[in-house]
Every structure is written in C-alpha cells, then in structure tokens.
Design brief:
homodimer, alpha+beta, Arc Repressor Mutant, subunit A, SH3 type barrels, two-stranded antiparallel sheet, 10 strands, DNA-binding
Chain lengths: ~250, ~250
DNA sequence: AGTAGAAGTTAGGCATACCGAAACCATACT
DNA sequence: AGTATGGTTTCGGTATGCCTAACTTCTACT
C-alpha cells in the first residue's frame, strides 16, 4: 500500500522585500477591490518604478501575482495567502506592543513593520495565545486568523457618510502617527459613538458629534481626518458580516 | 558665546552582517582574552574564509576592528561598544522570551539571533524595564547594561576544575539546544550546587555531584558537557567581582 | 635553512534589490 | 487618424554579501 504524502508545504523562503510588496498589494485591495498599478506600488514602497517592474516580474515567476505588461498587478491565491500571513503578523505585533509593552498606538506601526519580517511562526503563535487570540488590532483593523480567514467589519469611510448617519468608529488608519496623536488628544478613539451632523459649504469640514448625551462633543474634521476614520452602523458592531476565507 | 555640541552620536546604520561579525568577535574574547583569527571567524559565522577577509576589510574601514593582514582580528573601542549593545539585545531577548512568552531555554537562541537585528532601542528599553533590568540571561550569561558596563561572574569551566572543588553552576553555554534539553531532563540547572568528585581514567568522564544532602545525585559528564558548564566558588555568587566598563 | 602545508588574501562571479535614463506602449484629445 | 503625454518597461550600473579557485604568506618540522 502506498501512502500519499500531502503536497509538501513548500516553505519557499520569502525575502522581506517580497513580503513588503505582497503586503502593499494586498493592503490596496483590502477595502475596495481594485488591483494596484506599478506607479502606485512604487509610491507606497518608496522605490523607483523600474524597481517595481523588476520585482513584479520576480513575484510573477514565484507565482505570487498575476501580471500582464502595462496592466495592473493582482495577487494569486498563493500571494493572497502570503499577504494575509504578513498582515496577521503585523497586526498581532501591533496589538502586542500596545498591550504588553506599553507602546502608544502612534508608535507601533514602524516597530511592527520591522519585526514582522523577523519573528518566527512560533513567536506569532505564542503572542496570539497570550493576547487571547484577538480579532482586531489597536487601530481596529481585523487580524486574519492563522488559517487565513478574515472577518471584515461592515464599515464605511466617514468622509463618504451623509449627514444624519451615525454609528461607531471601528477603524482608524495607522499611517500617520501625527494624526493618531491628534485623535488621542481629542479623545476620539476606537468604538466611540459618532454621528454626522453636516458639512460646511464648498468642500469644507465635516461636522461630527462624538459621544452621546451630555458628554457629546462636536468636531470639525478636515477631509484628511474623515478619510482616515471608518464607521460601522450601530448594532453590527465589533466585526461581523463579511467573512472571507482564502485557501492556502 | 558659542555652545559646543557634544560630538554627534554618529548613528551609522550597521547592517545585520556587520552586527553578527562584531558580536562573534566579541563573544570569542568574552571569557578569555585572545583575539580571533579569520578561520575561526569563518567557522563560527558559517561563511567562507574569503568572505571574512572581505568583510574584515570593511569593518576596518568603518573603524570597528584593528587588523593587519595575516594576523588576528581585534575590536576597537567602537567595535566593542557595538558588540556589547548586540550582546545586550540578544540576552535581554532570550530572557524576555523565556519569562514572558513561555519559551524553553533551548528554543530562545535562534529566535533571539533574528530579533536582535530588528528591534528598536525603544523596544529593548521597554523589555528591560518590564523584566526589572535583569543582570543575567536564562543561561547565566551577564547582560551588559545600557552604558556598556558588564559584570562578569568569577567562573571557571567545569572541565578545568580539580577534584574536590565545589561551587554553583553560573553559566551554561547556549550553543547546543540538544545539550540544554539533556541538562533539563537531568534537572541540572542554573545555580545548582555542584562538587567535582573525580575523574575516570584515561581522559574519561568527570564525576560530579549535583545538589547537597539527601537530594544529591552523581553524574558522569563527558568532556562536551563539562566544557559547557561554568562554576563559581560558593559565596561569590550571582555575579560580582570583575566589573569592566567600555566607553562608548 | 628549506620547504610543505595551513592560514589568509585576491580575483572573478552570482544573487538580491535598488537606481536613473532611455525606449516603449496606450490612451485620450484634437 | 495622428500625436502628445504619462505610465511602464528595459537597459546599464551600484552596493552588499556571499561563493570557488587561485595565489601568497606564514609557520613549524625536518
């Protein structure tokens, strides 16, 4: 009798550059499904266009992306799976730094960016266990499970909300530490109840009320700020609705 | 009035290879003061001799080592300082992994090896604080302070002890995880009281008694094991005597 | 002192990942 | 349809850090 081994889980050693490319491609698609272009990739990675062309060719050779010359870049299932594991690493690390080492949420991004390439799977697993298998990070971003499944909260960019809409802040972009410090100061945090009051004329600030009852406060938010905040309608809360699973 | 700025603390970005070379050079000298040769360096780093020649030239250009062709390699004060900061990182990480993430002492070395190049100074500082500024790691190796000062325990290799000597185990080489698991199994750990009973003839095993009173147990230790264990005479214990400070 | 073999260095190459400049393609506008 | 414009790729080149193979220097033994 012949026993068939499960297809060897090819542990292709991926360089940290490859990991970064794949992660950025994924991140671009996470909240709306448009493939990313070379130039956008180059901008986000801070490299020259030519470097992207070259690297994309390598990624394609490794089966991580689909790409036709002069068109946008898309992750394959394999690429998606690698990306999800990097996102998982990043977000678990951010959560860990905040909860266990007293980092503030504006400090964690860069540190996690470096660590995610260095830690072992064992480290990730121990961290995950110690944190109690959290489902979202300090900025509200969902943490993919070890099997690659993600639960996306049903959220909309605050900047796209019509006056009258209300809900809770479920996600805050972590790309600008400045902004995070500002929000901290104003005590605008994750899960804060929020309601869009109106919009100042001529593309002006978005007026929102944070909190309820007597503790409510009104803010004029610039486009930059309201772009960075995501709101879920009351009730659907901590993260439900869409569950998307990616095969490995 | 002119204010003189302190000489800018040149934050030369050192690559992880440079860090590894410097660390290995330092480690070789830590317990006895002989400079390391190219071939020894190559062996410990797992690279070809030619790679070492090349890299040593670069290290010399950067002022991290002194080196004359065909002779041994020595750290400069600057190199020593970099090495100490890497050793500090490594040992703090090992301690952290054991105490906070439940690693066993045979698992930590490789993980720390990777992390030490990735974590920030901030991370190190937070870890150090959380651990209560420990002075030695899980294997008994002294952890250099942030200012580069190290307190070396007055210890001798067990393999070089004469029968009749007694003391406590203060350091256990962490280079062989196998060996660490063996010692764990035999419940031979850090700070265990120990006494050399004798030596089997013809370069045979070293016979030692671990523990005292009724709990004492005798072991035959091979050269390999007794080489890896360091013993301090009773009394001088956890780490005192030699304090060596290196200027930054 | 002479020389063999070990130890160390130099020379030429490879892989990764980046760059700027030049060539190329696609689209959108007249 | 014809072309300008901008996005994309290709082409040489750079820097690191590693390799093997060939060569040089040192050392220790006869």
């Amino acid at each position: 009798m012949v026993t068939v081994k499960p297809a060897a889980v090819k542990p292709t050693p991926t360089s940290s550059s490859v990991e970064d490319y794949v992660k950025v491609i994924y991140a671009f698609t996470e909240w709306q499904d448009k493939p990313i272009t070379s130039t956008q990739l180059a901008t986000r990675l801070g490299v020259a266009n030519s470097s992207v062309s070259e690297m994309v060719r390598k990624l394609k050779d490794q089966g991580l992306v689909d790409h036709q010359p002069y068109s946008a870049v898309r992750l394959t299932a394999e690429g998606q799976s690698l990306a999800l594991s990097m996102v998982r690493r990043h977000r678990l690390l951010e959560t860990y730094l905040v909860q266990e080492l007293g980092y503030s949420w504006d400090e964690v991004h860069d540190e996690a960016e470096l660590l995610e390439h260095a830690v072992s799977d064992t480290f990730i697993e121990r961290m995950d266990a110690k944190l109690g298998r959290p489902s979202r990070d300090p900025h509200g971003d969902p943490i993919p499970a070890a099997d690659g499944s993600v639960t996306m909260p049903a959220a909309h960019r605050m900047s796209q909300l019509d006056p009258g809409h209300s809900g809770r802040i479920t996600r805050i972009s972590d790309h600008d530490p400045e902004l995070l410090r500002y929000l901290d100061q104003q005590r605008i945090g994750l899960d804060a109840p929020i309601r869009v009051q109106g919009r100042k004329p001529f593309g002006g600030a978005l007026v929102v009320r944070v909190g309820t009852g007597p503790a409510a406060r009104d803010f004029d938010l610039t486009e930059e700020v309201s772009e960075a905040l995501w709101v879920s309608p009351e009730g659907t809360h901590p993260g439900c609705t869409l569950t998307r699973t990616t095969l490995t």
